[in-house]
Design a protein that fits this description.
Number of strands: 20
Mean pLDDT: 83
Largest sheet: 8 strands, antiparallel, barrel
Radius of gyration: 25 Å
Strand order of the largest sheet: 10-13-14-16-17-18-19-20
Helix content: under 10%
Distance between the termini: 58 Å
Number of helices: 1
Shape: elongated
Order of helices and strands: EEEEEEEEEEEEEEEHEEEEE
Strand content: over 45%
Structural class: mainly beta
């Protein structure tokens, strides 16, 4: 639990029980609860927000390792919103009185139904509405943001989604950080060496459902002449309809690569020993696929 203090007035300490030692401002009450899943386990990643009767946010935050939260708030009627990845949102009400304790007890979140999956068959990445971006450290402090402008991909959706497969090919020379001199250097033998290794390729036939709309996609990434196993943390966003009535499916995915794993080990050290380029690179994909014509 935690203490809450206002600058003005005299604080009071809550009495015995689980809230013992909680410092509460004068003319305030306490709102508390515990967020659990359907088998009564705490939902550790849950976040809560408390709004007043006018819809204004009064307090928000994350639960503790036991799924619990507690907040001191002015007397009044409140709406509580609770959200957590993979669970349906919860909304409820509570009335807090001066010096009172509105204990909500256990708030059970229900597992969210996953969005419908694409129909089995062959799909392809639609580049116009997709992106492959990366973030790297520069001089140990600033971040460099970039993207690959040219890529293609195919997805074969199986009857059992876990048996699906995908193949993505990226044009290494299409790297773009919006600085020509830097991009030329990244294409050189110091980094991607695009003359020898013109493409990056990712192939996967292992799709693991992690619950809700979360998936892990594990496959082989070939970069700079080296192939390593990489897992994408993916969020499936569901199906939609394009401007011309075509069905689309969308997902986001991310992973972190270490340059040395792919022998992209060029380093220049500054006088203080700080690497110009960081050792890891974060990859973020935002992809839409359409049925293959």
């Amino acid at each position: 639990m935690f203490g809450l203090k206002w600058r003005n007035g005299t604080n009071r300490t809550h009495g015995g029980g689980p809230l013992a030692g909680l410092t509460v401002p004068p003319s305030a009450g306490v709102l508390s609860g515990r967020i659990i899943d359907p088998v009564s386990e705490p939902v550790r990643g849950a976040e809560f927000a408390v709004n007043d009767a006018m819809g204004r946010k009064v307090v928000s935050g994350g639960v503790d390792p036991y799924g619990s939260f507690v907040a001191a708030v002015p007397p009044g009627d409140y709406r509580l919103a609770v959200s957590a990845e993979g669970y349906a949102p919860f909304r409820g009400g509570a009335t807090v009185t001066e010096s009172g304790h509105a204990a909500l007890g256990d708030v059970t979140l229900q597992v969210a139904a996953p969005p419908p999956l694409p129909e089995p068959g062959d799909w392809e990445v639609e580049p116009m509405h997709s992106s492959i971006a990366f973030t790297a450290r520069h001089i140990g402090m600033a971040r460099v943001y970039g993207r690959f402008n040219t890529f293609a991909g195919a997805l074969r959706v199986a009857e059992r989604a876990e048996d699906s497969a995908m193949h993505v090919v990226i044009d290494a020379s299409s790297i773009d950080t919006n600085v020509k001199m830097r991009d030329d250097h990244l294409r050189s033998a110091d980094f991607l060496d695009v003359e020898r290794f013109p493409t990056l390729e990712f192939y996967s036939d292992r799709f693991v459902h992690k619950g809700g709309n979360r998936w892990a996609i594990t496959g082989a990434l070939s970069l700079h002449g080296v192939t390593r196993t990489v897992t994408l943390d993916a969020e499936y966003l569901g199906l939609g309809v394009g401007m011309e009535g075509e069905t689309r499916a969308a997902c986001r995915a991310s992973t972190e690569l270490h340059r040395d794993d792919f022998t992209v080990s060029w380093q220049t050290m500054l006088a203080k020993g700080i690497a110009v380029v960081g050792s890891s690179v974060r990859i973020d994909l935002d992809v839409q696929v359409v049925p293959k014509g």
